[in-house]
Design goal:
The chain is of the alpha/beta class. It is built from ten helices and 15 strands.
Length: 374
């Protein structure tokens, strides 16, 4: 461990001091949830526009607004920093916080490149600090239940995952639809897959039919190491909003409709069974026997809790328990790996691009994998 050592936080009320950096689109949501948490004490809101920070704080009179990031880093009462600045600044802000001995939460994406993300992961690991990605969707009750169903084996071996995230959305100037929307689906995929299952290659196709200068429609196809397949469709041009994910298993198939509060998750005991008869005679061909199964549909009860509240709780618990959070820096790195490979595939008109070794669930040193690609 080098530089600032991880601090043994011992506050009288047991709460961790935290500062939010960035008072734009996402920062106010973090402010609200840190204020409501019994695990944290919000001390600062830092933004280049201090007036905006003060406006966000409103009645939170005990929280200081500032445009001086160095003052926040120098405050010994601040144990953690939540970064909600533009993605292009994530590396500099998060790296400075880690070097100041602070635990760090970063809004998605972890960084704008895999190499920058790897620097953050390596820095946090060397200093013994918690680095967490705010992959908010992973903390929704529905996705938590999906993870349980997949990891318990109730769905059986995963055969495919199909995700659709489309709407008439704001066309971004600095990123294409792939980098804008797909991180949500890729982080969910990474979160729900069993430990032994991971993507190994990706092919992507995109289009800009309106001449926006960025791909407004994209399709990603991921090959998994088990031979299964995952597909992601993202689109800014759809007149209707769709948020669905289908997880097909050998035993059951699950459908998640995030826009259906009455039945967010449905599990179907329907599908195709394949039975192979015993070895036949030498002159006979082996044939696969296919049968169709049509069983019940079950809609598990899904509780309602704000995902950001659960995410904040996990951040606090990971720091206290000195363990990796559910969406740690390596999870963010795996998402960046897929995004970079998908962008490269787009450049080569859908060519299959292998993912980096070491970006998966192994514990190989991150620095060893930077720049490598299968």
């Amino acid at each position: 461990m080098k530089g600032n050592k991880v601090k043994d936080v011992d506050r009288p009320d047991g709460r961790l001091g935290v500062a939010v950096v960035g008072a734009g689109y996402w920062g106010p949501n973090l402010v609200r949830n840190f204020q409501a948490s019994d695990r944290f004490l919000l001390r600062w809101l830092c933004d280049l526009d201090v007036t905006r920070a003060q406006r966000v704080l409103g009645g939170y009179s005990t929280v200081q607004a500032t445009d001086d990031f160095e003052a926040v880093l120098a405050d010994p009462s601040v144990d953690a920093i939540a970064v909600a600045t533009p993605a292009g600044t994530h590396l500099d802000v998060a790296l400075a916080a880690l070097r100041a001995g602070k635990h760090v939460l970063v809004e998605k994406p972890l960084a704008t490149t895999y190499a920058d993300g790897a620097r953050l992961v390596a820095e946090a690991e060397e200093r013994g600090l918690t680095l967490m990605c705010d992959h908010t969707y992973c903390y929704t009750p529905a996705v938590g239940r999906i993870r349980e169903l997949v990891h318990s084996g109730e769905l059986g071996e995963i055969h495919y995952v199909d995700s659709v995230r489309i709407n008439l959305g704001l066309v971004q100037k600095d990123v294409d639809v792939l980098w804008d929307l797909a991180p949500h689906d890729l982080s969910i995929l990474d979160f729900i897959l069993p430990e032994h299952v991971e993507p190994v290659a990706v092919a992507a196709h995109g289009a800009d039919p309106i001449g926006a200068g960025q791909d407004c429609i994209a399709y990603l196809t991921l090959q998994l190491n088990t031979g299964a397949i995952a597909h992601v469709h993202v689109n800014w041009l759809s007149p209707t909003k769709v948020r669905t994910t289908m997880v097909g298993g050998a035993k059951r198939t699950l459908i998640w409709d995030d826009l259906n509060p009455a039945q967010r998750v449905a599990v179907f005991d329907r599908g195709v069974d394949l039975a192979t008869p015993q070895e036949l005679g030498a002159d006979e061909r082996r044939q696969a026997l296919i049968s169709y199964r049509s069983g019940d549909m079950v809609a598990p009860a899904i509780g309602e809790k704000e995902a950001l509240r659960s995410m904040v709780d996990e951040f606090g618990a990971a720091i206290r328990e000195r363990r990796a959070p559910l969406t740690d820096g390596r999870a963010g790195l795996r998402v960046l790996d897929i995004l970079e490979a998908a962008s490269r595939s787009l450049e080569f008109r859908g060519a299959v691009v292998g993912l980096r070794t070491g970006a998966g669930r192994s514990l190989r040193t991150v620095n060893d994998s930077v720049g490598e690609r299968r």
